[in-house]
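step 3/5: co-fold with cytidine-5'-diphosphate
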Amino acid sequence: MVRIGLGHDTHRLGPGDTLVIGGVRIPHDRTAIGHSDADVLLHAITDALLGAAALGDIGELFPDTDPANKGRDSADMLRRAHAKVAAAGWRLVNLDCVIFAQRPKILPHRPAIRRQIAEILGVDQAAVWLKAKTGEGVGPIGEQLAIAAECVVLIERA
Ligand code: CDP
Ligand code: ZN
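step 4/5: write tokens
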């Protein structure tokens, strides 16, 4: 038996020096703003996994009203969500993501991001793929007011 899950996340951008995407710190003149470390990609992956297993969503597991979640490491949230999914008898088959960002160029960082995600999830890098799209200069993505990410995952009975 297999199941599919979909995750989406958006974060506001503000002045800064580092953008954290998929657990990788990318030097950049804007940073993502959020209650946690604002890693838009790891948040989308977390929601996709939880959705595939029908086990809630990131906001339910880690409410932003809980001070314990302030500045929380997104890799830790993903690890916990993945453990919950695995405990329910599921195994990750593969995941595929899209990052929506006008800047910076994501492709040069793809190997590092895939490596990081594969390590967090304990899977082969071949199970992790990633693409990027600009906002074509228009809208909140194009005007660099926001960054977004989407992810689909496939899980199977372990
Ligand atoms: O060419 P098309 O309109 O389909 O896409 P685009 O948004 O203009 O992006 C062109 C290519 O740049 C993408 O296929 C990505 O490979 C790359 N890209 C990137 O590396 N980092 C981004 N933030 C956006 C796009
Ligand atoms: Zn987020």
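step 5/5: annotate
The CA atoms of residues 35 and 66 lie 10 Å apart.
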